[in-house]
């Protein structure tokens, strides 16, 4: 219990996601169900999202269709389960610019957007390199980069350079550069004087198996299969996250982790989407 409430809100899923995309080196191991989700943080004074999902009606939807994503639900429907309207959201912390994390920005016209400066610069560089570099564009909707430019003109974009402590009281942005993407970042949520920190990992960690190798008794790091950066940097970032949470893996929250619904209080909506309640601020009513 503390000052912040955190929910993980599923908005779509990829029931046939290649296992090799989630675990580096997991060749010929078929497919797995991968939830697509974003996170809602309520503080005393602010409504914030960590990532925003995608828009099924633009090119992000085409990318989603190409990898078998189903069940897309718009943010107004998803957030209503927690009594929030898209226009109530005033802060958006983007872990990275893959379509399923950034493509829903247009639904949140009142939000200030925080992304690492290096993330934006690297996508501009990749796009400028042209078609021969298109393998590095996997998961990118270029229109999302254009949207960041528009938000910048409107005074709603903040480019973060490295670590930003207390972007909101008790909420910190930590860089994980050259990992899943060039300018990935993750969010640390601090309740109760810092002894129960949460790490919202973005895609630096897809599932707990990235932390354990599926061998909890004798764990080892298996980095995500999809990475524009380095496997070593991914493992170093995972080690850093474990240090922040005192090696309590369950305080790392990966949005693509199906098991979150078993670890934390959860419920299914009418549309079959999971709502996971990671923590609840003092005096806040449960949404489960
Ligand atoms: Zn990603």
Automatic annotation (TrEMBL):
Top enzyme class: hydrolase
InterPro entries (UniProt xref): MBL_superfamily_lactonases, Metallo-B-lactamas, RibonucZ/Hydroxyglut_hydro
Domain (Metallo-beta-lactamase): residue spans on this chain: 34-256
EC number: 3.1.1.81
Keywords: Hydrolase, Metal-binding, Zinc
Family that this chain belongs to: Belongs to the metallo-beta-lactamase superfamily.
Names of required cofactors: Zn(2+)
SUPFAM superfamilies: Metallo-hydrolase/oxidoreductase (SSF56281)
Short name of any one Pfam family annotated for the protein: Lactamase_B
GO MF assignments: acyl-L-homoserine-lactone lactonohydrolase activity; metal ion binding
Reactions catalysed: an N-acyl-L-homoserine lactone + H2O = an N-acyl-L-homoserine + H(+)
Protein name per Swiss-Prot or TrEMBL: quorum-quenching N-acyl-homoserine lactonase
């Amino acid at each position: 219990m503390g000052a912040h409430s955190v929910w993980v809100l599923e908005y779509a899923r990829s029931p046939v996601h290649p296992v090799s995309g989630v675990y580096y080196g997991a060749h010929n191991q078929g497919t797995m169900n991968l939830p697509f989700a974003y996170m809602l943080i309520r503080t005393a004074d602010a409504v914030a999202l960590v990532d925003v999902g995608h828009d099924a009606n633009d090119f992000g939807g085409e990318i989603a269709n190409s990898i078998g994503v189903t069940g897309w639900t718009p943010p107004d429907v998803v957030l209503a389960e927690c009594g929030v309207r898209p226009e109530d959201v005033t802060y958006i912390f983007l872990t990275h610019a893959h379509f399923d994390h950034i493509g829903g920005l247009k639904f949140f016209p009142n939000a200030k957007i925080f992304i690492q400066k290096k993330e934006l610069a690297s996508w501009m560089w990749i796009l400028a390199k042209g078609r021969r570099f298109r393998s590095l564009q996997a998961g990118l909707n270029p229109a999302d980069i254009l949207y960041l430019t528009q938000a910048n003109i409107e005074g709603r974009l903040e480019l973060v350079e490295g670590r930003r402590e207390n972007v909101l009281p008790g909420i910190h942005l930590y860089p994980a550069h050259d990992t899943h993407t060039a300018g990935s970042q993750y969010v640390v949520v601090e309740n109760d004087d810092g002894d129960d920190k949460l790490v919202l990992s973005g895609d630096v960690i897809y599932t707990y198996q990235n932390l354990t190798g599926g061998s909890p008794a004798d764990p080892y790091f298996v980095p995500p299969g999809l990475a524009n950066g380095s496997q070593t940097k991914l493992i170093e970032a995972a080690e850093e996250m474990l240090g922040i949470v005192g090696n309590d893996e369950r305080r790392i929250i990966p949005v693509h982790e199906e098991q979150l619904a078993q670890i934390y209080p959860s419920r299914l909506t009418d549309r079959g989407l999971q709502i996971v309640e990671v923590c609840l601020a003092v005096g806040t009513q449960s949404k489960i």
